[in-house]
Amino acid sequence: MAGSVLLPKPCLMRLPHYYRRLMKAIHEGQSIISSEELGEEAGVPAAQARKDLSYLGEFGRPGVGYDVYELAAHLEKVLGLNEPKKAILIGVGNLGRALASYPGFARYRLQITAAFDVDPSKIGQRIGSIPVLPLEELETFVRQRAVRMAILAVPAPQAQSIADRLSAAGIRLIWNFAPVSLRVPEGVKVFNEDLAARLATLSF
Ligand code: ATP
Q1: How far apart are CA 125 and CA 186, in angstroms?
Q2: 5: closest CA among 80, 81, 78, 77?
């Protein structure tokens, strides 16, 4: 079901914010929520929130609001939040380590099954329950475990060659934390997370 609704990208990016607000409502025992409240969480006006949610189908009643449970369940389906997702991590430096240790991914059922590195002092270690494996085992691991998602946290100069290997091995989604634009074959998607560039826009 995840990805089966075609949405404009800005709308897609706002759905997790609506979902987060819905989780808060559930936590607080609220059963109906307004588009104002949802929009506020995503930083958009109520009309925009209503428009975004109208892409998902007929939800909400004018003058009343949205049923919190119904909308949350639907967002879970659209975003695939209930489907377990396996990922691998490449690069166990400071950032990679932080990502591997972040407990928030479990909420979205993302499980990092292994990490890979070239540094002999890191290979063989564990980050929580995640083993750090030698990079030579990358392709075999991806093929045998049918992993489709990779988190890339290697230095920029190494990122492209790793992306090539990941794509050839069958990875279809790369969440790229290296500050570099990656070229990937058709059928592979890249989501860039350039933290330093983001900081620059924040400062501005
Ligand atoms: P540290 O000092 O622990 O290495 P760091 O955050 O400064 O941390 P970076 O230089 O950003 O490290 O490198 C990130 C990680 O990527 C390191 O663990 C490094 O060993 C690893 N790495 C470097 N080249 C590759 C590669 N080709 N494939 C996999 N991992 C790599």
Answers
A1: 35
A2: 78
Q: How far is the CA of 122 from the centre of ligand 1 (A)?
A: 10
Residue 1 confidence (pLDDT): 43
Per-residue model confidence as pLDDT tens digits over 37-58: 999 999 999 999 999 999 988 8
Q: Encode pLDDT of 86-139 as tens digits.
A: 999 999 999 999 999 999 888 788 999 999 999 999 999 999 999 999 999 999
Ligand 1 atom 17: the closest Cα is on which residue? 93
117 lines ligand 1 (CB under 6 A): yes
Pocket test for ligand 1, best of 90, 99, 118 (most atoms within 8 A of CB): 118
Q: Angle at CA 105, nearest 5°, toward 111 and 99?
A: 90
Residue type, 2: A
pTM of the model: 0.83
Is 94 a pocket residue for ligand 1 (Cβ < 6 Å)?
Answer: yes
> Does the C-beta of 119 come closer than 6 Å to ligand 1?
yes
Grouping H, G, I as helix, E, B as strand and the rest as coil, residue 32 is strand
**82 pLDDT band (50/70/90 cuts)?**
confident
